[in-house]
């Protein structure tokens, strides 16, 4: 896929504690496209691709899916899960996991 830069804010792991600062977000970049998943408060998550809002989910953050498209038309799927009070973010580009375990 080519994604090589990954940043997770407010921690050094992909999984972040749900009770931590609400300004954390996950971001990956391949030089052409940038994908950012950003929680807003405790009940909304936004997906940005190249700084353009692609999807928003406003719901209890137990299990959330977001969708978008890269500039080359490839589909982006994001899965957010909460397990044992930990928030996990998985990003898939054309069904290939580029962020997550």
What does this structure look like?
The protein has 101 residues and is mainly β. 0% of the residues lie in helices and 57% in strands. It has a single domain, classed as Lipocalin. The protein contains no helices and ten strands. The strands form two sheets. It has a five-stranded antiparallel sheet, with no helix packed on it. Strands 2, 7, 8, 9 and 10 form a five-stranded antiparallel sheet that branches. The radius of gyration is 12 Å and the shape is globular.
Main pleated-sheet profile:
5 strands, antiparallel
Strand content: over 45%
Silhouette: globular
Determine Rg (CA atoms, Å): 12 Å
What is the number of beta strands?
10
Q: Per CATH, what is the topology?
A: Lipocalin
Please give the structural blueprint:
Elements: E1 5-8, E2 16-17, E3 26-29, E4 34-40, E5 44-49, E6 52-58, E7 63-69, E8 75-83, E9 86-93, E10 96-99
Antiparallel strand pairs: 1-3, 2-9, 3-4, 4-5, 5-6, 7-8, 8-9, 9-10
Summarize it:
The chain has 101 residues and is mainly β.
Keyphrases for this structure?
5-stranded antiparallel sheet, 57% strand, Lipocalin, mainly beta, 101 residues
């Amino acid at each position: 896929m080519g994604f090589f830069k990954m940043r997770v804010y407010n921690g050094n792991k992909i999984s972040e504690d749900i009770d931590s600062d609400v300004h954390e977000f996950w971001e990956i970049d391949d030089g052409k496209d940038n994908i950012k998943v950003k929680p807003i408060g405790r009940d909304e998550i936004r997906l940005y691709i190249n700084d353009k809002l692609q999807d928003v989910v406003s719901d209890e953050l137990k299990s959330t899916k977001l969708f978008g498209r890269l500039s080359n038309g490839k589909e982006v799927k994001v899965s957010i899960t909460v397990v044992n009070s930990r928030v996990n973010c998985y990003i898939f580009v054309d069904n290939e996991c580029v962020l997550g375990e």
